[in-house]
Design goal:
Length: 99
């Protein structure tokens, strides 16, 4: 199951490759422990970047996606750190910059 999920990520990266100029990703999987992780950085052709980390532990998932413009200014961040209990999508939520 874990390796299949990580394969889906690799397939998606291949699909978006025309808009990606650089990929730096580390994968880890242990089917016996039902554990997997993927973390890294994508640089897009406009020099924006997506830093990310995802850990899968059985049926639990922890993630963070941090998207920045070409000057490393935050555009948006998604994560599921459980610190905004008041929102409907708890623990998943999105952070954005104030314009």
């Amino acid at each position: 199951m874990i390796k299949a999920y990580l394969k889906k990520i690799q397939d998606k990266l291949e699909e978006i490759s025309p808009i990606v100029s650089d990929v730096d990703i580390d994968y880890e999987a242990d089917e016996n422990l039902n554990f997997g992780s993927v973390k890294g950085r994508l640089t897009f052709i406009d020099n924006s970047t997506l830093d990310f980390s995802e850990k899968i532990m059985g049926d639990k998932r922890r993630y963070r996606f941090h998207y920045m413009d070409f000057q490393n200014r935050l555009i948006s961040r998604w994560d599921n750190v459980p610190h905004h209990r008041e929102i409907k999508t708890f623990p998943s939520h999105k952070h954005t910059t104030k314009a």
